[in-house]
Amino acid sequence: MPGGEQIPVMRTNPYFDFSHLTPTERIELAQELWDSLDPDLVAEAFPLTAEQRAELDRRLAELDANPELGRPWEEVEAELRARLPRDTPR
Predict the structure, then answer these.
(1) CB–CB of 56/48 below 8 Å?
(2) DSSP secondary structure letter of residue 5
């Protein structure tokens, strides 16, 4: 970290001790926790700014005008997974 600061050590809790997990496993756990949240509650807790909303609207309008520019998620996901190191869980 800048200025020689150290990364804080994760607090240990006997019920929530993730120290035995690899970094990849921790990221996957965080993603699973995020995915378990109700999208409406997330949207309420983290509202989009006017700029973010405008950018999403612009992108949707561009996709509506040029649908051939889009790619199916499955295709993009497969491409990204192919780039992952072989020891990364898929």
Answers:
(1) yes
(2) P
